[in-house]
Amino acid sequence: MSNLSILYAFIGGAIAGAGAALLFAPEKGADVRERIADLLRKKGILCSDNEIDALVEQLTTQIDD
User: Fold this and answer.
1) Which DSSP string corresponds to 13-33?
2) d(CA 12, CA 8)
3) What is the C-alpha to C-alpha distance for residues 55 and 62, in angstroms, rounded to an integer?
């Protein structure tokens, strides 16, 4: 496994972990989505509202399994 693959895996895991942590926080859904969008923007990742909604849905599905 190359160093770049390990880095991508780490970043992906960190984003998924942060998203899961935000989903468990006792806040409104809109507030959580905004926090996720802000976090991704700070990391240099630009996402549309639809992409944020899809990410939240994917994380929710993985958490429920």
Assistant:
1) HHHHHHHHHHHHSSS-HHHHH
2) 6
3) 11
